[in-house]
User: What shape does this take?
Amino acid sequence: MGEIEVYIYKIIIENFRSIKKLEWKPNKNVNVIIGPNGCGKSTLATALDYLLNPYIQWYNRTLSDIDYYDRNTSNTILIEVWFKDLDDFIEDDGELYFEHVDENDNISENGKELVLITRFKAGPDKKPIHSIFSNGKEHSFKQVHKGIINFKYIESERDPLKELSFVRNSVLSKFIHHDNLNVLIQSIIEEFNNTTTACLMKDPDFKLALENLGNNFANFNLISDDEVAISLEATELSESKTLQAFSLVFKNKNTEKYIPIKYQSKGIKNLMLLIALGEMLKETGILFLEEPEQNLEPFMQRKIIQNITDTIKGQIFLTTHSIEVAKMHEFENIFLMRDGEIRPLPSLEYVDNKFKKKIEQYAKIDLISGLFSKGVLLVEGEADLSGLSIFSKKYKKGLEYNGVDLIMGGGKDEIYKYAKFFSECNIPCICLVDNDADIERLLNNFMKNQVKCLILILPKDYETAIISMQVFQDCWKELFEEIHEFKKYKDDYLKPFRPGSSKSYILKDKYNNNLQEIEQSKSLEQLINLLSDNEIKEFQREFLHINLAGIPNAKYVASYLVSEAEEKEIEDFLAVEFKNMFNLIGVYVDSNFVCEDSKRCVIHKAVNPLFSYADICEKCAYIRKGYNNVLNVRGE
Assistant: This one.
C-alpha cells in the first residue's frame, strides 16, 4: 500500500454533549481552535475520538445520558466525519466504501470528488454503531480501517508518563515499535535467564540454600536427585512486560547521572511527549492535541509549536488558551469556537487592504489577544489605552471582572475597522470615543460599513475625565512638576497657550491678551496665578493632551493618581464617566450583577430596539438621538 495522506474534510456533530449541531470543514494541514472554557473544544475532540480511536472497546460499552445534548436521550447522537485523499484506503474493494460528491458536497454519481463517510450513531438505547456510509448502506467501520487513518487524541488531562512508557498503544511504543523488536526482546529475556542464574549461583549462601531445597524435595522421589535438579528462571517475562519495565531517563544539562522521567518537571514531561508525537506522526496521521502549552514558558511554547508543525506531515488540530501558540499561525489557520459552533476568522482583506497591511506588520498580537477575551474595548488614543487599564483595576466591576480586553483601535479613521473585524468574529465589541467636533463623521463610518458594535461617547474626552477627579485636583501641580520640571521644560508649559499646538480657544485668547506675562512666568505657580478657575482646567486638559498623552506618561499619570488615592485611603475616586462606562460594558458582555438595574439597563435597548421595559435605567448613559447603538455616557 502506498503512502496514505488521509485528512478530515468535513465534520458533522449532532446532539453530542455540549454540541447541539455543528458542521465544519477544517484545513487540510493546521487547525488552531481557540475559544472560552466550556465552548465545546473538548467535546469536539472526544467526538472524533469516539469515532476514530481503534482502541476503544465498544462491543461491551454503552453511552451515558451525559453524552447526549441536554441529557435528552430521545435524540440520536450523530458524529460524521468525511475524509479525502484516501485512494489507497482498501486495495481491492475501495470503491465499495467511497462516495462521489459534487462541488456542493451532494452525493452524486456524477460527482468528481471521492470521499469516505464514517459515522458514529447512538439512539435512545445508548448503544453506539460505527459504520462507513456508502451507496445508501451502512458498512462496518472496522478497527483496521481506523488504524489506517491513524488518528491520535492527546487530551488536556494527559498522562505523559503513560504515553512515554511501553504500555500498550502508548505514543512511545508506537513510534519505537518495528518488526524485529519482539525478536530482540525475546533474545534479551533468554540472555537474562542464562546469565542471571549463573551470577546468582556464584553466591555461596544462595547456592547452598537452593541445593538444600532441592535435596529435601528429592527425598520425595518427585524430581531428579542431581545437583542441578532445581534452578531459577524468569518465566513470567514476556515481550510486553519486559518493555514496560523500562523507563526513559535523562541526563539533565548540569548533571552526570541519569534521572528517570518520573522525577523530571511537568514541563519536561510535556515537552518530551510533544516531541515523541511528532516522531510518531512524522509521515502520516491525524493529531488532535489539547493545550500544547501546558507547563511551558512562552519561548518553549513557540519552539515546540514550530517543531510540531515542521515535523508532522499529517493533519493537526490544536486547541489552546495561549496567545503565544496562536500567534505562531496565520489567520486562516485559526478558528474561533463559541457556543458549540466553529467559524473561521474573517479575512483581513474583508476589512480592507490597508488594515491587512497594518495588522500583518505590527498589530497581529492585538487582534489575537482580543480573540481570547469575552469582549473587546477599542479606544482611540494611547492615553486611554494606558490609563483605563490601570483605573479599571481599581474598580470592583472593571474590565478584568468582565473579561474584556483593552485594545487601541488606531484613531477615528481606524477604530471602526477593528470593530468590524471583531464583530464578524461574534465577539462583543465596544468602541470608546471622545465627543469631538467631528464625532458625526466617525459615526457615519460605522453606519456606512455596517459595523455591529456598541459605541460609547464620553461627555468630552479622556483628559476632561481625568481633571474631573478630586484626587487629580489635589496633586496635579506636583504631578506635572515631577514629570516636566518647569525650569527645564518651560516650553512644554507654554504649549497649551500657543496657537501652533493648542486647541483651546480660551487659552489662545488668554495668550494673545497676556503674552508678556505668560512668557515671563518663572514658575508653574506664577503661571497659574494668571488664570481663572475655568482657564486652569483648560490648561490642565491641554497639558495632559499635549505633553502626557503617550503610553509611558499616561501610564505614569494614572499610576500616580491611584497611588495618591491609596495613600489618602480614598476608595471612590474614579471619574463618574469611567465608572458608568465600566458598568455599561459589563451589562453589554452579559456579566451578572453589574448593578441592581442590570436587567433593565439602556444597553438592552441599544442592542435590541424592540426591548421594552416599564422603566429603562438611564443612570449611566442615554441613547444618542438618531442612532440605535450609540450611547452618550453620563459624567459629572
